[in-house]
Amino acid sequence: MSKYTTELRYICEVLAGLDESEGYNSVDDIIENSYDKVFDFDYPIFDEEYRPVLEKKIIRHFYTREIGDETVGLFKLHLSAKMNDIMDYYNQLYKSALIEFDPMTDIKYSLSGSESMSHSESHSASESSSTSESTYSSLSTSESTSESEMNSQSLWDMYQDTPQNQLTGVESLAYLTNATLDKSHGNSSRDTDSVIDSTGHGTLNQKKNGTKDNIGSSNDIKRYLEKYEGYRSNNPSKLLTDFRETFLNIDLMIIGELEKLFFQLW
Predict the structure, then answer these.
(1) For residues 57 and 63, what is the distance between their CA atoms, to the nearest angstrom?
(2) Does 77 lie in the same domain as 132?
(3) d(Cα 106, Cα 110) in Å, to the nearest integer?
């Protein structure tokens, strides 16, 4: 029990509203009711939910230690300055400790990609066109008559029975069994009268010109994935040992930074 110096527990008991010191059984309640009054200043923290956890741990560690300043106000000033000086670094340690990985894997390699093969085909056709425009005004009358006459006489169709295989007299048209003569006569005529009276503007399309493209394509995509994962060491226990060496008690490191704020004799 200090006589000329102030222990941290005295400060906490007063801030918790106690008139007398309490024993061990009341320590948790006293810290719960006073930690936010001791740390009534702002400092950076990686997670706001972790702020009360850290502050309670600091107070519990130094609960019976004597502050290294003459007054409580001066002590809180130095405490605030120290926390703001060191927490940027320790916040990075806190964040790195949250990274999860497999300590027994020292190689992890993956390669993925795709290959594309494309085919294309095109056809084109051209067509040209020309357009002429004209203005006209005309009056025309026409009359036409056509007539035709056909006179034709067919060849004789002559027939003679020749049971005795004699052809004498056939060419001279003698001794015919049958003779037929086809004769036709005809005529046709057409009369046409027409009157055209027109004025206006006309457009004549003589030829067309254009281009038509027919394009088709197809794509073949091949995807691949290669993965390598494991350890190259012949001694897996070495990996485990190296992993254990990375363990950090960051809270205790911060507490060590605050040692200079308290008397070093007790």
Answers:
(1) 10
(2) no
(3) 14
